[in-house]
From TrEMBL:
Signal sequence extent: 1-26
Keywords annotated in UniProt: Signal
Species this protein is from: Allokutzneria albata
Record protein name field: GH26 domain-containing protein
Highest taxon of source: Bacteria
InterPro entries (alphabetical): GH
Gene3D superfamilies with a match to the protein in the record: Glycosidases (3.20.20.80)
Key word Signal present: yes
Length: 284
């Protein structure tokens, strides 16, 4: 009995040491950002989902009234982002918009992933975002405990620090620890045909935010530029999906959004490749 227990502990230790969580190869939710209306979601379900997409990524530029919030347009599950009214970050932190946030949160379906200010790294300091996150968690959880509040980060900033706000993880890691989970928006832009696990922004975010936070993680936006060509796009998609499953991601969402044609999967083979991914995704 002792030798069997020892063997199990050794095996578990090897999993932890490899950087792969105990959730490795667990089912991953698969979804997409498809624009601001039901037609975009319906088209993506047919084109790249085969009816298997779950989370729809949606956005509002302010704290809209619940009946006008974009998440209502479509989707079975929701990954929803909003921003403070008039982008008044200071007023938001000080509680000026608690009533609007509370009313919005109250109607979100259980299991919704929600954030106020996705990709905040090019807009504010880590210390400021920590206050935004803590305000969001406090108000949303009190209004609707079934909603998850996540931090959606920007891989480009963690790679380049072009706005000077992520020279260190100070503040950002505190926000991550206050959240229910941490996700990354990451793009293989023209000239950067790199799979997720090799992206410098991902690696730095993983080391400074995901690992020390100990929180569930996901890919909330993934785009691969059409400039890389069909064969390369499909190869990157397959590598990304295998990596997301191996590392126990909660979700993997593609940017199938027509606001910029370079990211959409448009060829028959590209769409078939993503339908195969969606078919392997978690459904309940």
């Amino acid at each position: 009995m002792k030798s069997r227990r020892t063997a199990l502990l050794i095996a578990f230790g090897m999993v932890v040491a490899s950087g792969i969580t105990a959730e490795a190869d667990a089912a991953v939710w698969v979804g997409a950002s498809t624009g601001a209306n039901a037609a975009g979601w319906s088209g993506a379900q047919s084109d790249i989902g085969g009816g298997k997409l779950t989370y729809r990524r949606s956005f509002d530029p302010t704290l809209r009234s619940s009946d006008k919030a974009n998440w209502r347009a479509a989707g079975s599950r929701h990954w929803y982002s909003a921003k403070p009214i008039n982008n008044d970050i200071r007023g938001y932190i000080d509680g000026k918009y608690d009533a609007e946030l509370r009313a919005l949160a109250k109607d979100l379906p259980a299991g919704t992933i929600f954030t106020v200010y996705h990709e905040p790294e090019d807009n504010m300091s880590g210390a400021t975002f920590n206050k935004v996150m803590r305000k969001t968690v406090a108000v949303v959880k009190a209004a609707n405990p079934g909603v998850q509040v996540w931090y959606a980060a920007m891989a480009y900033q963690w790679k380049t620090n072009s706005k000077g706000n992520v020279g260190t993880s100070a503040g950002w890691i505190d926000a991550a620890r206050a959240a229910d989970g941490v996700s990354l928006d990451i793009y293989a832009s023209p000239g950067n045909a790199v799979k997720i696990q090799d992206d410098k922004g991902f690696k730095r975010w993983w080391d400074l935010i995901k690992v020390p936070s100990g929180k569930p993680w996901g890919i909330s936006e993934r785009g691969i530029s059409a400039s890389h060509g069909e064969e390369k796009r499909i190869a990157i998609l397959k590598d990304d999906w295998a990596f997301a499953r191996e590392r126990g991601a909660h979700h993997f969402l593609y940017w199938q959004n027509n606001n910029d044609g370079q990211w959409m999967l448009t060829t028959d083979s590209e769409r078939a490749a993503f339908r195969a991914i969606a078919a392997q995704g978690r459904q309940r």
